[in-house]
Structure formats: structure tokens, C-alpha cells
Amino acid sequence: MSKNHLLRPKTQQDIDARVERILKGLGNPEPPLRLEDVRELLKLDRQFYKADDPGLLRETVSRIRVATIQVFQRPMLLLEAIKKMSLQALYIPDRRRILLDENLPLLKHRWSEAHEVIHSVVPWHEELMHGDNNHTLTTACHVEVEAEANYGAGRLLFLRDRFTGEAMDLPISIASVQSLKKDFGNTLSSTLWRFVETTGITRPVVGMITCHPHVSRRPVDFNPLAPARHCIQSHAFAARFCRLSEQELFAAIASYCAPKMGGPLGQSLLILKDDNGDEHEFAFETFFIRYKGSIPGEALTLGVYMRPHARIIAA
Hints:
There is one protein chain. The protein is an alpha+beta fold. It folds into two domains: 9-157, Orthogonal Bundle (Arc Repressor Mutant, subunit A); 161-308, Beta-Lactamase (2-Layer Sandwich), CATH 3.30.450. It is built from 14 helices and eight strands. It has helices spanning 9-25, 35-42, 54-62, 69-73, 77-84, 106-121, 123-129, 133-136, 139-157, 161-168, 174-184, 188-199, 235-241, 246-254; strands at 45-49, 89-92, 97-101, 205-210, 228-233, 263-273, 279-289, 298-308. The strands form two sheets. The chain has a five-stranded antiparallel sheet with strand order 5-4-8-7-6, with helices on both faces. Helix 11 (174-184) crosses helix 12. It is globular, with a radius of gyration of 21 Å.
């Protein structure tokens, strides 16, 4: 499942308080946030490795003298973890060091680094990274921890309530996401994610990050059972429409998307059923980003609740 994992309010408040301390320590900066200033404040180091270069990866790992007993006894454990889990970024707590894969597209560096910064400031995350088997054995725990780091990264990169205030003053549209992307200096994908979370507290809003939805533009390895890279539910959407599958949403989106390879792909008023089977109207629109080089493009979709669907019955 690619649906985002929603955190409990108390967990959000705890992470929010830690992000607020960082931003206050930086003097409540203007956007875009400078991550080098965050690293300096938290005394964090950042280095790069190449996951597809075994020699350089071994050299990088060998330079990391981690005090954790598990890694100390098996110095290649980190190397094995990077390869096995296809890690593109990780945090080494003993050295307060963030490692980023050099092969990660430059556009993704900012989000990945902020994600690891949150790992560094949440105490229970550090316990897990030191090999706390009481927690690390469960998949559910891993999902929760990653969701917490993602939530914190979004709150950090988008300067907490600074983004909230600006987002709530704008129409719920792709154009607003594009405007906020420029202001806060983050990717369009991460801006869409934060925008859905922010604007969908009381009104159902959903976002999708997928390959090109049009059947003629889908990649050869397209998996119809897992069509979305990310399905972003707002709290209000999850509360009423959580039974809707990614496959149903993707099929609905594909019904209106043109085959063009950049820019707006289309928009439509779609009918979605809530968890009780009642029909509701959503305004959907999709925008396709075409990246340079070999980086695959992404289709960003935003769906906004409009009203209950009124059936017309002939007399």
C-alpha cells in the first residue's frame, strides 16, 4: 500500500514541538530554509556515498567508527543494510552524521536530508538505530517511525505554521501548490504532500503521485496492482473514504488524462463513494512533471471534495 500513514495527534504535537525548537534556534527564518544552518545548529555532519559503487561504499563505511556494539562487531553491517534495503539516506547517531547516496537526484537531497534530521532529534528514533530489538522487529514500528520522520521533515522544510497560514489563504489547486513550491524552495511533490495534509483537516482532500496515468504513456514495468508511488490522504479524507483503493483512484484519474508529456493533463468532476456507499463529487486535476536525464517523470494529482452527489431520478 502506498497510502500515507496518519499519526496520532499527540505524536504530531511532540514532533512539532521539536521542529519549533529548531526554527526558534535559527531565529524563525524566512523561506526557503537553509539546511546547512540546521546542521550547524544541531552539530550534524553530512557525507555522501554511492550505493552502486561497492569500492567507494566500503571505503565510506570503513571511515564511520560507530560505537554501536552490533556495528562495531560487524563493520560491514551498515554496508549490508544499505544494499539490502536500497537505502538512499540514513542517520548514524553515534557520529551525528547524515549519509546521502550521491546517485539520489539532486532534487531529492533536500527532503532526504530533512527526513534524517528528524531522526536525529526524536529520542525514540535513536533507540531504534542503536538496535533496540523490542521495537525493530515489527514492520508496523518501521512504518510508524518513517511516517514520523516524513511528518517532521514536512513541518521543518515548510516552516510549520508559516506554510499553514499561506496554504489556507489559497484555493485548493495545483496552481497554489506550484506557487508555494517557489516560495519555500522544495520540490513540487513534497509541496503537494504538505498541501494535502494542511488543507484537508476538515475538508476531504487527496493527492496522488504516480507514473503517467494515460495507458499509452505508462512505463513498461507498470504494476496495475500498485499504480501509485504515493497516495496522500488528508485526515478528513481518511475518516470518510479510507475504503477507496489506490487502483480505484488511479482508474478514475486515468479516465480524464491526456497523453501529453508535460504540464496539465486534464481535470474532471469525479464521483467517489464514501465508506457508507454514498456518492460524492470531487474536483480532480493532474499535472505531469518531466525531469531531465534518466529521472522518470511524475504525475501529480489533487482531488478536492465539493458536495454530495445528487442523483436525478426520472419520474
